[in-house]
Amino acid sequence: MQKATILVVDDEALIRWSLTERLNAEGYQVLEAETGKSALEQLAEGVDLVLLDYRLPDTDGVSVLRKIKEFDQDVLVILLTAYASVDTAVEAMKLGAFHFANKPFNLDEVMATVERALETTRLRREVRQYRTSAARPYSLQRLVGASSTIIALRSLIARVAASPASTVLLTGESGTGKDLVAKIIHYASDRSSKPFMNITCSALPEQLLESELFGHERGAFTDARMQKKGLLEMADGGTVFLDEIGEMTPGLQAKVLRFLEEKSFKRVGGSHDIRVDVRVVAATNRNLEEEVSKHRFRSDLFFRLNVLPIEMPPLRARTDDVPLLVEYFIDSFNTEFRKRIQGATPSAYALLQSYGWPGNIRELRNVIERAMLLSDSERLDARDFTVTTSAVSTGDEFELPATGVDLEKLERSLVVQALKRSGGNQTKAGAFLGLNRDQIRYRIEKFGLNATTAT
Which of 63, 72, 161, 218 has the most CB atoms lying inside 10 A of its own CB? Predict the structure, then answer.
């Protein structure tokens, strides 16, 4: 593997020669320049590091450093000078100089600094590449559809992502893709290089949720054996996604409101404020205005969250998009299951478009997944969607018995069945019930179940 390219910029031929000889001996590719103008012209060759003299015939090193950083922030610069001053060093470091070395220098020390600088450059580029690849799955094109509804939604999300607003509220029925939109907003914003942290507010009891959000100090409660940073602190500069915020308790709502208004919080058991800059994207399938009128959700928190509201449309309101979504899921599952199903038949599309989809896109995805797992046909047909066929022909999938039901027992029974059918796989069990992994895990703990044996 080819080593890095280093540009040596110095008007003294002997210094250029000594540095070049040593760098070549270490296996580096070396370029030379004796003026600032020549150095800047050679940046296009693909330079990883610059060893830059402070005094040059045509300019000074700080001016060259500034232009190098304008060209490529990842190129690190080590300034070499016999005329260092505190002011010069401070200015150079503010502009992004990696190191400031005095002449005469020790070659071994310079080589050690070169190695540290190149390792820093490598890590920066790896992080940038990782963040770029991580962002790719969450482009606006992930909102599949060509209906006027989805086109308008994509336009709104793009504007919201570009705005400086610190809060966004996503509303809409369960399964409409609020979690996906939260990630799209983050990765389409200027916060995309910073962390995206998410938490489901219904999955944890109040004390644990507070600790996850704000962190805690050592000894704050029984199990707090060491200090812990919360999601808000870890996401500084980025985005925090609060899913199912309508389930948050009143006490915690007050603390979230304080954070949103003051941009600061205290860890659990802490005494000093911690300031962070995060965008909060909250989501709920509840009608928060109704919850406010019933005094179950704070009105001041609702108004603070509702700065940029986005309502996710139910799938039944954009059934023209169903064929495109079906094709998208078929392509995805073809890759995952190593199948070659070539779409669906006209009768299948007609059936899927005639259904009301109470579980929205999540339900459609699960139906396509089950059909593809069981089908050996070249194309999915209406007969592959037996669950949907039944739902279409009978209306509601479940009918309340005249004698009523014990809702707690029914929920437990459904969770047990889903775990057994999925072989204890919590993600798949959640998919059977339209729940995410945090939600199914919460119910497993709630009912004291063993996920492996489902008992």
Answer: 161
